[in-house]
Structure formats: structure tokens, C-alpha cells
Design a protein that fits this description.
The protein is mainly alpha-helical. It has ten helices and two strands. Strands 1-2 form a two-stranded antiparallel sheet. It is elongated. The N and C termini lie far apart (about 65 Å).
Length: about 180
């Protein structure tokens, strides 16, 4: 397969200037040039661009993408985990913004439309599903045991104060009664 800059860009929904920029910074260089000096991209280049696009979709910077694609030893997991941590923090900030907006609107029912669920709503859902206090405790114990960071993220997403999050997590680890 041989593709021009325009065709490769069209295939991936990118502008010609973006591909020229990628070439200029060494992120994606054409495998060859035509007799007239035009850039010609092959299958390997298209696969590399596909990876670039995938990494851009998750929010990695171009320098980081270059490191990943050029095989900088041990950086893949490190960069992806760091990005995941950034996303988790950003999600937490966005949830807090939702709660603030709902408070400013002075209408707690708007929180349901914001696709966020507070602690009271979760408890109501658990109760409706037939969970009693002991079953909810088991749920927290298992959540804390299997995915402690996700359990913390979940509790924080409810808008609970840090002290309450810590108390629930301690309760879940101690497998005792909440205090």
C-alpha cells in the first residue's frame, strides 16, 4: 500500500498539516519519497499512525507517544498508569463541580440528571435490591479487598468528606461495625 499525505490524513481524519507536523517532529516519517519528492506512506506508517491516534484519544502528549512508539524501555506501563491516575483525579474534580452546580441551582433533583449518584441514592438502590446492613457491609469488604483504589474513588465520587471515606475504608478492612 502506498498513500500520499492527503490520502493518509483522510483515512484517519487528520489534516495534511498535522501529518507534516508529525513528520517535522519525527513522530511519523514517510517510509519513502516519490521521484518528485512527495511523501509516500506504507502499511507500517499507517499502523504507526493508528497507534498515534489511539494514544492521542486517551490524552497522551506527542512526546509521550513518541517514547511509547520508539520503545523507550519500561515506559509503557509507567506512562499509561500515570495517565490513568490523571484521569481519575480529573473525574473526581468534575464530579465535585457537578455537586457544586447542583448546590448553586438549589435543586438536589438535578443531581440525578447529572448522572451522579450520592450516598443516599446508593443506599436506596441497595435497599431496593434487598441488601440489609450486613450485606452492604460485605459489599464494602469485598470492594475494599478486591479493588482498594477503586473503592476509594467510588466513595469520593459520592461527595463524602475525606474523614468519612477513611472511616468506611477502615470499617471495610477491619470487617467490624462502623463507628
Amino acid at each position: 500500500m502506498s498513500l500520499s499525505v492527503g490520502r493518509l490524513g483522510k483515512r484517519f481524519g487528520l489534516s495534511r498539516s498535522t501529518l507534516l507536523y508529525y513528520d517535522r517532529i519525527g513522530l511519523l516519517s514517510p517510509s519513502r519519497r516519490s521521484a518528485a519528492g512527495y511523501r509516500v506512506y506504507g502499511d507500517g506508517d499507517a499502523r504507526r499512525l493508528e497507534a498515534i491516534c489511539r494514544y492521542r484519544e486517551i490524552g497522551l502528549r506527542l512526546e509521550q507517544i513518541g517514547e511509547l512508539l520508539d520503545g523507550v524501555a519500561g515506559r509503557t506501563a509507567q506512562l499509561l498508569e500515570a495517565r490513568l491516575d490523571q484521569l481519575n483525579a480529573e473525574i473526581g474534580r468534575l464530579r465535585e463541580q457537578q455537586r457544586i452546580i447542583v448546590r448553586l441551582l438549589e435543586n438536589p433533583k438535578k443531581l440525578r440528571g447529572a448522572r451522579a449518584i450520592d450516598k443516599d441514592r446508593w443506599v436506596a438502590i441497595f435497599r431496593a435490591a434487598g441488601l440489609d446492613d450486613a450485606a452492604m457491609h460485605r459489599w464494602h469488604v469485598e470492594f475494599e479487598s478486591m479493588a482498594p483504589k477503586a473503592h476509594q474513588d467510588f466513595l469520593e465520587s459520592l461527595g463524602l468528606p475525606k474523614v468519612e471515606v477513611a472511616r468506611i475504608r477502615r470499617w471495610s478492612r477491619d470487617r467490624g461495625a462502623i463507628n
